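Regression test case RT-17, inverse folding.

Input:
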Protein backbone atom coordinates (compact mmCIF):
# COMPACT_ATOMS: atom_id res chain seq x y z
CA UNK A 1 0.00 0.00 0.00
CA UNK A 2 2.73 2.42 -0.86
CA UNK A 3 3.53 4.72 -3.73
CA UNK A 4 6.46 6.96 -4.45
CA UNK A 5 6.40 10.73 -4.79
CA UNK A 6 9.13 13.40 -4.99
CA UNK A 7 10.42 14.48 -1.57
CA UNK A 8 13.48 16.42 -0.36
CA UNK A 9 16.52 14.39 0.62
CA UNK A 10 18.26 15.74 3.73
CA UNK A 11 20.68 14.07 6.12
CA UNK A 12 22.17 16.84 8.23
CA UNK A 13 20.19 16.28 11.40
CA UNK A 14 17.45 18.03 13.37
CA UNK A 15 19.80 20.71 14.70
CA UNK A 16 20.34 21.83 11.11
CA UNK A 17 16.56 21.92 10.58
CA UNK A 18 16.10 24.13 13.64
CA UNK A 19 18.90 26.49 12.61
CA UNK A 20 17.47 26.73 9.10
CA UNK A 21 14.00 27.41 10.48
CA UNK A 22 15.23 30.24 12.71
CA UNK A 23 17.30 31.73 9.87
CA UNK A 24 14.36 31.70 7.45
CA UNK A 25 12.08 33.35 9.99
CA UNK A 26 14.64 36.10 10.61
CA UNK A 27 15.04 36.64 6.86
CA UNK A 28 11.28 36.84 6.36
CA UNK A 29 10.99 39.43 9.12
CA UNK A 30 13.65 41.66 7.55
CA UNK A 31 12.33 41.31 4.04
CA UNK A 32 8.61 41.61 4.59
CA UNK A 33 8.44 44.12 7.42
CA UNK A 34 5.97 44.19 10.26
CA UNK A 35 2.86 44.59 8.12
CA UNK A 36 3.63 41.76 5.72
CA UNK A 37 4.66 39.51 8.62
CA UNK A 38 1.27 40.02 10.20
CA UNK A 39 -0.40 39.09 6.91
CA UNK A 40 1.73 35.97 6.73
CA UNK A 41 0.73 35.01 10.27
CA UNK A 42 -2.93 35.29 9.37
CA UNK A 43 -2.44 32.71 6.61
CA UNK A 44 -1.67 29.77 8.90
CA UNK A 45 -2.66 26.58 6.99
CA UNK A 46 -6.19 25.34 7.65
CA UNK A 47 -6.77 21.83 8.95
CA UNK A 48 -9.06 20.64 6.19
CA UNK A 49 -9.12 16.95 5.22
CA UNK A 50 -7.96 17.88 1.71
CA UNK A 51 -4.69 19.21 3.14
CA UNK A 52 -3.63 15.70 4.06
CA UNK A 53 -3.65 14.64 0.42
CA UNK A 54 -1.34 17.35 -0.84
CA UNK A 55 2.42 16.95 -1.18
CA UNK A 56 4.60 18.28 1.64
CA UNK A 57 6.86 21.29 1.15
CA UNK A 58 10.44 21.17 2.35
CA UNK A 59 10.60 20.18 6.06
CA UNK A 60 11.91 23.57 7.24
CA UNK A 61 9.27 25.42 5.22
CA UNK A 62 6.51 23.15 6.55
CA UNK A 63 7.68 23.76 10.10
CA UNK A 64 7.73 27.52 9.47
CA UNK A 65 4.18 27.52 8.16
CA UNK A 66 2.81 25.45 11.03
CA UNK A 67 4.62 27.60 13.59
CA UNK A 68 3.28 30.90 12.25
CA UNK A 69 1.02 32.42 14.95
CA UNK A 70 -2.72 32.61 14.40
CA UNK A 71 -4.31 36.04 14.41
CA UNK A 72 -6.94 35.00 17.01
CA UNK A 73 -7.57 31.83 19.02
CA UNK A 74 -9.53 29.27 17.03
CA UNK A 75 -12.79 27.76 18.36
CA UNK A 76 -10.80 24.63 19.22
CA UNK A 77 -8.42 26.67 21.41
CA UNK A 78 -11.31 28.48 23.08
CA UNK A 79 -12.97 25.15 23.84
CA UNK A 80 -9.71 23.69 25.09
CA UNK A 81 -9.26 26.55 27.55
CA UNK A 82 -12.81 26.11 28.82
CA UNK A 83 -12.40 22.36 29.29
CA UNK A 84 -8.91 22.48 30.77
CA UNK A 85 -8.29 21.33 34.32
CA UNK A 86 -7.50 17.62 34.10
CA UNK A 87 -4.01 16.56 33.09
CA UNK A 88 -3.88 14.07 30.24
CA UNK A 89 -2.76 10.62 31.47
CA UNK A 90 0.81 9.48 31.01
CA UNK A 91 1.06 6.46 28.74
CA UNK A 92 3.69 4.17 27.33
CA UNK A 93 5.52 5.18 24.18
CA UNK A 94 5.04 1.58 23.10
CA UNK A 95 7.54 -0.74 21.44
CA UNK A 96 7.97 1.37 18.27
CA UNK A 97 8.76 4.97 19.33
CA UNK A 98 11.70 5.59 17.00
CA UNK A 99 13.03 8.14 19.51
CA UNK A 100 16.28 6.35 20.31
CA UNK A 101 14.98 4.69 23.47
CA UNK A 102 14.95 1.21 21.94
CA UNK A 103 16.75 1.41 18.61
CA UNK A 104 16.40 3.90 15.73
CA UNK A 105 16.18 7.62 16.48
CA UNK A 106 14.24 9.54 13.83
CA UNK A 107 14.46 12.71 15.95
CA UNK A 108 18.07 13.19 14.89
CA UNK A 109 17.19 13.13 11.18
CA UNK A 110 16.93 16.27 9.10
CA UNK A 111 13.45 16.47 7.62
CA UNK A 112 11.56 15.23 10.69
CA UNK A 113 10.21 18.73 11.40
CA UNK A 114 7.17 18.77 9.12
CA UNK A 115 3.39 18.98 9.04
CA UNK A 116 2.70 16.30 6.42
CA UNK A 117 3.93 13.00 7.86
CA UNK A 118 2.33 10.69 5.28
CA UNK A 119 5.59 10.08 3.41
CA UNK A 120 9.09 8.98 4.31
CA UNK A 121 11.93 11.50 4.09
CA UNK A 122 15.69 11.34 3.68
CA UNK A 123 16.72 8.33 1.60
CA UNK A 124 13.12 7.31 0.76
CA UNK A 125 10.07 9.02 -0.70
CA UNK A 126 7.58 6.23 -0.02
CA UNK A 127 4.06 7.40 0.81
CA UNK A 128 1.78 5.55 3.23
CA UNK A 129 -1.67 5.33 1.67
CA UNK A 130 -5.00 5.53 3.45
CA UNK A 131 -7.95 7.75 4.33
CA UNK A 132 -6.66 11.31 4.99
CA UNK A 133 -6.53 12.40 8.63
CA UNK A 134 -5.57 15.83 9.93
CA UNK A 135 -5.13 15.92 13.70
CA UNK A 136 -4.52 18.87 16.01
CA UNK A 137 -3.27 18.91 19.60
CA UNK A 138 -4.08 21.88 21.85
CA UNK A 139 -1.22 22.06 24.38
CA UNK A 140 -2.14 23.69 27.70
CA UNK A 141 -0.15 24.40 30.86
CA UNK A 142 -2.41 22.90 33.54
CA UNK A 143 -0.29 24.30 36.39
CA UNK A 144 -0.41 27.84 35.03
CA UNK A 145 -4.08 28.58 34.46
CA UNK A 146 -4.20 26.47 31.29
CA UNK A 147 -2.04 28.97 29.44
CA UNK A 148 -1.27 27.73 25.90
CA UNK A 149 2.17 26.12 25.67
CA UNK A 150 3.47 28.28 22.84
CA UNK A 151 6.82 27.13 21.53
CA UNK A 152 6.51 23.60 22.86
CA UNK A 153 7.15 20.76 20.41
CA UNK A 154 5.34 17.49 19.67
CA UNK A 155 6.70 14.31 18.14
CA UNK A 156 3.80 12.20 16.80
CA UNK A 157 3.82 8.73 15.24
CA UNK A 158 1.41 5.91 14.42
CA UNK A 159 1.00 2.74 12.38
CA UNK A 160 -0.04 2.50 8.73
CA UNK A 161 -3.34 1.23 7.34
CA UNK A 162 -2.22 -2.36 7.90
CA UNK A 163 -1.10 -1.80 11.49
CA UNK A 164 2.63 -1.69 10.71
CA UNK A 165 5.21 0.77 12.07
CA UNK A 166 7.97 2.31 10.00
CA UNK A 167 11.56 1.72 11.19
CA UNK A 168 10.53 -1.53 12.92
CA UNK A 169 8.22 -3.85 10.98
CA UNK A 170 9.61 -6.27 8.43
CA UNK A 171 10.21 -4.53 5.11
CA UNK A 172 9.79 -1.06 6.66
CA UNK A 173 13.14 -0.80 8.44
CA UNK A 174 14.33 1.84 5.95
CA UNK A 175 11.08 3.83 5.98
CA UNK A 176 10.20 6.63 8.41
CA UNK A 177 6.73 7.63 7.25
CA UNK A 178 3.97 8.52 9.75
CA UNK A 179 6.48 10.20 12.08
CA UNK A 180 7.11 13.90 12.49
CA UNK A 181 7.72 16.88 14.75
CA UNK A 182 5.86 20.19 14.94
CA UNK A 183 6.39 23.37 17.00
CA UNK A 184 3.33 24.80 18.77
CA UNK A 185 2.09 28.22 17.65
CA UNK A 186 1.13 31.05 20.02
CA UNK A 187 -2.14 29.24 20.79
CA UNK A 188 -0.30 26.07 21.79
CA UNK A 189 -1.51 24.21 18.72
CA UNK A 190 0.27 21.68 16.54
CA UNK A 191 -1.31 20.11 13.47
CA UNK A 192 -0.26 17.08 11.42
CA UNK A 193 -1.54 15.85 8.05
CA UNK A 194 -1.46 12.08 7.87
CA UNK A 195 -3.60 9.01 7.16
CA UNK A 196 -6.05 7.20 9.41
CA UNK A 197 -4.14 4.55 11.42
CA UNK A 198 -5.01 0.90 11.08
CA UNK A 199 -6.05 -1.52 13.82
CA UNK A 200 -3.96 -4.41 15.10
CA UNK A 201 -4.82 -7.05 17.67
CA UNK A 202 -4.51 -6.00 21.30
CA UNK A 203 -4.86 -2.25 20.77
CA UNK A 204 -7.62 0.25 20.10
CA UNK A 205 -6.72 2.52 17.11
CA UNK A 206 -4.49 5.30 18.39
CA UNK A 207 -1.76 7.88 17.76
CA UNK A 208 1.34 8.21 19.97
CA UNK A 209 2.87 11.54 20.91
CA UNK A 210 5.60 13.04 23.06
CA UNK A 211 5.60 16.68 24.18
CA UNK A 212 8.87 18.59 24.62
CA UNK A 213 9.49 21.99 26.17
CA UNK A 214 10.90 23.30 22.91
CA UNK A 215 11.88 22.22 19.42
CA UNK A 216 15.57 22.25 20.32
CA UNK A 217 14.92 19.83 23.21
CA UNK A 218 13.53 17.04 21.05
CA UNK A 219 16.97 15.46 20.70
CA UNK A 220 17.92 15.92 24.39
CA UNK A 221 17.51 13.00 26.77
CA UNK A 222 15.21 13.66 29.73
CA UNK A 223 13.46 16.66 28.14
CA UNK A 224 10.08 14.98 27.55
CA UNK A 225 7.23 16.78 29.34
CA UNK A 226 4.53 14.24 28.54
CA UNK A 227 4.10 10.91 26.75
CA UNK A 228 0.53 9.99 25.87
CA UNK A 229 -1.78 8.71 23.13
CA UNK A 230 -4.82 9.82 21.15
CA UNK A 231 -7.78 7.44 20.94
CA UNK A 232 -9.84 7.57 17.75
CA UNK A 233 -13.64 7.34 17.81
CA UNK A 234 -15.49 4.10 17.17
CA UNK A 235 -17.74 5.60 14.49
CA UNK A 236 -14.78 6.92 12.49
CA UNK A 237 -12.92 3.61 12.80
CA UNK A 238 -15.89 1.60 11.58
CA UNK A 239 -16.38 3.88 8.58
CA UNK A 240 -12.70 3.90 7.60
CA UNK A 241 -12.13 0.19 8.04
CA UNK A 242 -15.07 -0.57 5.75
CA UNK A 243 -13.21 1.20 2.92
CA UNK A 244 -10.62 -0.16 0.51
CA UNK A 245 -7.10 -0.71 1.82
CA UNK A 246 -8.09 -1.47 5.41
CA UNK A 247 -8.96 -5.17 5.08
CA UNK A 248 -6.58 -6.28 7.84
CA UNK A 249 -7.85 -3.56 10.17
CA UNK A 250 -11.44 -4.51 9.38
CA UNK A 251 -10.71 -8.01 10.72
CA UNK A 252 -8.72 -6.83 13.77
CA UNK A 253 -10.88 -3.94 14.97
CA UNK A 254 -13.70 -6.00 16.57
CA UNK A 255 -11.18 -7.90 18.72
CA UNK A 256 -10.35 -4.99 21.07
CA UNK A 257 -12.67 -2.51 22.77
CA UNK A 258 -11.82 0.71 24.59
CA UNK A 259 -12.63 -1.07 27.85
CA UNK A 260 -10.30 -3.99 27.09
CA UNK A 261 -7.47 -1.91 25.61
CA UNK A 262 -4.34 -2.11 27.76
CA UNK A 263 -3.80 1.66 27.59
CA UNK A 264 -7.24 3.29 27.48
CA UNK A 265 -9.06 0.56 29.40
CA UNK A 266 -8.59 1.99 32.89
CA UNK A 267 -10.87 4.97 32.18
CA UNK A 268 -12.27 4.26 28.72
CA UNK A 269 -9.98 6.87 27.20
CA UNK A 270 -12.19 9.69 28.51
CA UNK A 271 -9.33 12.21 28.51
CA UNK A 272 -7.72 10.95 25.30
CA UNK A 273 -10.66 10.39 22.97
CA UNK A 274 -10.38 12.84 20.09
CA UNK A 275 -13.17 15.05 18.82
CA UNK A 276 -13.62 13.97 15.20
CA UNK A 277 -15.52 14.98 12.09
CA UNK A 278 -15.47 14.00 8.42
CA UNK A 279 -16.05 10.89 6.36
CA UNK A 280 -14.15 7.95 4.92
CA UNK A 281 -14.66 9.39 1.45
CA UNK A 282 -13.45 12.92 2.17
CA UNK A 283 -11.12 12.34 5.10
CA UNK A 284 -11.28 13.14 8.82
CA UNK A 285 -10.15 15.83 11.21
CA UNK A 286 -9.39 15.14 14.86
CA UNK A 287 -8.67 17.40 17.81
CA UNK A 288 -7.55 16.72 21.38
CA UNK A 289 -6.91 18.98 24.37
CA UNK A 290 -3.60 18.10 26.03
CA UNK A 291 -3.32 19.58 29.52
CA UNK A 292 0.16 19.11 30.94
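Golden output:
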Amino acid sequence: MTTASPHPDHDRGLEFDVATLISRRRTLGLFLGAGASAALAACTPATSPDAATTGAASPAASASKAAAPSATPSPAVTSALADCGVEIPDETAGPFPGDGSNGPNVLEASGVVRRDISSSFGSSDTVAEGVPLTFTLNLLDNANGCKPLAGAAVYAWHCDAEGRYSLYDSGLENENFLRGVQEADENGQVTFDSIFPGAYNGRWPHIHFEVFESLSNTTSAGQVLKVSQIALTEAACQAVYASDGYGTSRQNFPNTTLASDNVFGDDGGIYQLATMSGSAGEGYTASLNVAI
